Automatic annotation (TrEMBL):
Keywords: Cell membrane, Membrane, Transmembrane, Transmembrane helix. Pfam families: Virul_fac_BrkB. It comes from Actinomycetospora lemnae. It is a multi-pass membrane protein. InterPro entries: Virul_fac_BrkB (IPR017039). The chain crosses the membrane at residues 85-110, 131-152, 172-192, 204-225, 237-258. Its main location: membrane. This is YhjD/YihY/BrkB family envelope integrity protein.
Length: 278
């Protein structure tokens, strides 16, 4: 007996997510992202270290401290060993870090982003992008990540001698970071789903949903892990890696659910994905 198609928008999004096997797609992307995350963080710190004369001598140190704090929040005490190892790597100055480390980060990021673009193309029912698109996004992610990180840990308004710049930047810092995340989500969704020019409004809505999911996962997941760690000691030495992998899984799943929402907002979630007018 054939099931009736869902009538509500959330029902259609859930049905489409099940049809596209979003949990499996998110798990694949999270695995490749977990391989790329530490080389990418090292490369961002190396870029800031190379640009130290323009950004300030302690820009790379502040960035490494900020990244370490983020990892400690996400991994909680169950991943303290992984966080300590990351802190050691991020604060170690190596001559070839900007060259060898960047190559490794690019290779792993391209593979992770190819998985993301393939998943978004599956959602949209369009041909997947080539590795060139993934490579361009990887380069942009490294450079943009270094820029946003420098802005988050430094005070650019003080460098420009803006009156009361420190106070103004304290108010603007995190809104600017959130806007950068929204812009990145819009770019990835549009590139991966091959959207046309007249879809900016729904792209922004979907990107806002993705960023809201990222922020929620980053805020709530550490609390969940800290509660579970008190009653279950089975994570062991692999706890940090497993926690990081699950966190990345939640981030990619949020992005793909935003992609399903975008598709639904654009064309009502047509059953024939090969004719999706994205």
């Amino acid at each position: 007996m054939r099931r009736r198609p869902p009538r509500t928008r959330p029902g259609r999004i859930a049905a489409s997510a099940s049809r596209h096997r979003l949990p499996a797609l998110a798990a694949e992307s999270a695995f490749f992202a977990a391989l790329a995350v530490f080389p990418a963080l090292l490369t961002v710190v190396a870029i800031l270290r190379a640009a130290g004369t323009a950004l300030g001598a302690d820009a790379d140190v502040a960035a490494a401290e900020g990244m370490t704090r983020l990892l400690r929040v996400v991994l909680t005490t169950r991943g303290s060993a992984a966080a300590d190892a990351a802190a050691t790597l991020l604060t170690t100055s190596t001559t070839g870090l900007l060259t060898v480390g960047t190559v490794a980060a690019l290779v792993l990021l391209v593979r992770a982003l190819r998985s993301v673009l393939h998943a978004l193309a599956t959602i949209a029912g369009r041909p997947a992008r080539t590795w060139r698109a993934a490579a361009a996004l990887a380069l942009l992610l490294l450079v943009g990540g270094a820029t946003v990180t420098a802005a988050a840990v430094q005070d650019p308004l003080l460098v420009l001698d803006v009156p009361a710049g420190h106070l103004v930047w304290r108010l603007l810092r995190w809104p600017v970071v959130v806007l950068a995340l929204v812009a990145w989500a819009v770019l990835v969704l549009r590139v991966g789903m091959r959207l046309r020019r007249g879809t900016w409004r729904v792209s922004l809505v979907a990107a806002a949903i993705a960023v809201a999911g990222w922020l929620t996962a980053s805020a709530v997941f550490p609390l969940y892990v800290s509660v579970v760690a008190r009653v279950a000691g089975g994570l062991g030495a692999l706890g940090g890696g497993l926690i990081l992998l699950v966190w990345l899984y939640l981030l990619t799943l949020s992005l793909y659910l935003a992609g399903e929402t975008l598709r639904e907002l654009h064309d009502g979630g047509a059953e024939d994905t090969s004719r999706t007018p994205l």
